[in-house]
Amino acid sequence: TTDIAVLSVYIAVGIALGAVVVPRLIPIERLRRARMAAYWMGLFIILLSVTESPWAVKALLLVVGMAGGMFVVPINAALQEIGHRTIGSGGAVAIQNFFENLAMLGGTA
């Protein structure tokens, strides 16, 4: 279980790093750039499935986390910006959380 926790740390640090650098790389006016982070994340996940070296796995998890952070942060910022103008940003986030939790429940059924 310690090994799994260490791997979780690599992906968490990657998400944090991606979230920190993304405002400089993908401004909200250029939201379409966020899909590139999703493409990179998918590619690195595929590479992760064929990687055997523990250090390579850790590096790939770090990069997958960074790509995930670089994808999610602009999408959530756009959701809050659009939601602020329509139903309020809090309402938009509440609706997003509801559907995310509903999807997780559906995935476990």
Q: What is the typical, i.e. mean, pLDDT?
A: 90
Rg, Å, rounded:
16 Å
Distance between the first and last residues' Cα = 26 Å
Largest sheet report: none
Number of domains: 1
Give the strand tally: 0
Order of helices and strands: HHHH
Query: Which structural class best describes the helix and strand composition?
Result: mainly alpha
Shape: globular
Question: How are the SSEs ordered, and which strands pair?
Answer:
Layout: H1 2-25, H2 34-49, H3 54-86, H4 89-108
Helix pairs in contact: 1-3, 2-3, 3-4
Structure description:
The chain is an all-alpha fold and 109 residues long. The protein has one domain. 85% of the residues lie in helices and 0% in strands. The longest helix has 33 residues. The radius of gyration is 16 Å and the shape is globular. The two termini are 26 Å apart. The mean pLDDT is 90.
Provide key terms for this protein.
85% helix, single chain, 109 residues, mainly alpha
Give a quick precis of the structure.
With 109 residues, this protein is mainly α. It has four helices and no strands.
